[in-house]
Amino acid sequence: MPVNAEKSSLVFKEGLLEKRSDGLLQLWKKKHCVLTEDGPHHGGGDTGKVKELHFANMKTVDCVERKGKYVYFTVVMTEGKEIDFRCPQDEGWNAEITLQMVQYKNRQAILAVKSTRQKQQLLVVQMPGQKTVRSSPNVA
C-alpha cells in the first residue's frame, strides 16, 4: 500500500470525490481526496488547502443512495455536522470510508481495553500492617 509522504501514513484510496458546498446554492465541487489510516483528506481545488476528517471525529457514513451514475453519501461527524459527498458508483468511496472507519474504531476499542488492563495490573495495593504489593504487568 502507498504511503502518504506528508504524514507517513498508509493510503487506502486516492482520487476525486465531489463535496456539496454549505452555501445557499449547494453546488457540487470536485475535491482530490486521500483516504489514510487517520481518515479522509481532501484538497480544495486551486487553493491547495487540505481538509482532514479524522476518524476520531466521525460518527458514521449515512444516507447512501444510488441515483443515475452517482452514489450519494453523508459523513456524520460526532458534533452532529453532516458533510455530503458523491462519487461515480463504481469507485466505492463510501464503502472504503466505512470499512476503514470501523477498523479505526475497533483499534481504538482494543487500545482502550489494553490500557484499562494495564492500569488494573499496575495498581498498588496497600494492605494494613503488610508490605505494599504490586502486581506485575502481563505483556501481551
Automatic annotation (TrEMBL):
PANTHER family: PLECKSTRIN HOMOLOGY-LIKE DOMAIN FAMILY A MEMBER 1, PLECKSTRIN HOMOLOGY-LIKE DOMAIN, PQ-RICH PROTEIN
Keywords associated with the record: Cytoplasm
GO BP annotation list: positive regulation of apoptotic process
Full protein name: Pleckstrin homology-like domain, family A, member 1
Matching InterPro entries: PHLA1/2/3
Compartments where found: Cytoplasm
GO molecular function: phosphatidylinositol phosphate binding
GO cellular component, one term: cytoplasm
